[in-house]
């Protein structure tokens, strides 16, 4: 998703980009975007930890909510987002599970208070990192892999276990464990 989505409840725009490979300088690129655009946050995560666009939007909503209501233990919104995506409340475990891995596929999640800053940050990331595409809905296999990565039991889904919607619901419940 290159066009930002608005989370109306919090007035935050979210965009997600699939990176063919996380570059070694991704932290510097994120820092440049944050300094260039006020109230803009960027987190790059392992693509294997993301069950598509619905998971990104759900995670962004919950991270912003936890951050705004002081439910989290961290000072940075990006760190709270990493906890939600990974489904854990332990930062080291979140880094191991969902942290960006240089040279591997990743997802850059851009959040901002205004649409222009979000779009501009996406353009900056896209200009600095090769082979950036939008992110969409996951296949059933991708969603199952994220559920397994979070340590979730797919057997609890019963006969509906093969549908992406059922798997995403399980992943979203797992993502709430961080708080």
Overview of the structural elements:
With 179 residues, the chain is an alpha+beta fold. The protein has a single domain (5-178), classed as PF0523-like, CATH 3.30.2380. Helix content is 46%, strand content 16%. It has 7 helices and 5 strands. The protein has helices at 26-36, 52-68, 77-86, 91-98, 115-128, 140-149, 164-175, and strands spanning 5-7, 12-19, 40-46, 106-112, 132-134. Strands 1, 2, 3, 4 and 5 form a 5-stranded antiparallel sheet that branches. Strand 1 (5-7) and strand 2 (12-19) form a beta hairpin. Helix 1 runs antiparallel to helix 5 (115-128), helix 2 (52-68) packs across helix 3 (77-86) and helix 6 (140-149) runs parallel beside helix 7. The longest helix has 17 residues, at 52-68. The radius of gyration is 15 Å and the shape is globular. The two termini are 27 Å apart. The mean pLDDT is 83.
List the helices and strands and how they pair.
Layout: E1 5-7, E2 12-19, H1 26-36, E3 40-46, H2 52-68, H3 77-86, H4 91-98, E4 106-112, H5 115-128, E5 132-134, H6 140-149, H7 164-175
Antiparallel strand pairs: 1-2, 2-4, 2-5, 3-4
Q: If you compute it from the alpha carbons, what radius of gyration comes out, rounded to the nearest whole angstrom?
A: 15 Å
Mean pLDDT: 83
Order of helices and strands: EEHEHHHEHEHH
* Low-confidence regions: none
Main sheet overview: 5 strands, antiparallel
Count of folded domains = 1
Total number of β-strand segments?
5
Helical stretch tally: 7
Q: How widely separated are the two ends? A: 27 Å
How does CATH name the architecture?
2-Layer Sandwich
The percent range for strand residues is 15-25%
Helix percentage range: 40-55%
CATH top level label: Alpha Beta
Molecular shape: globular
The fourth-level CATH homologous superfamily is CGI121/TPRKB
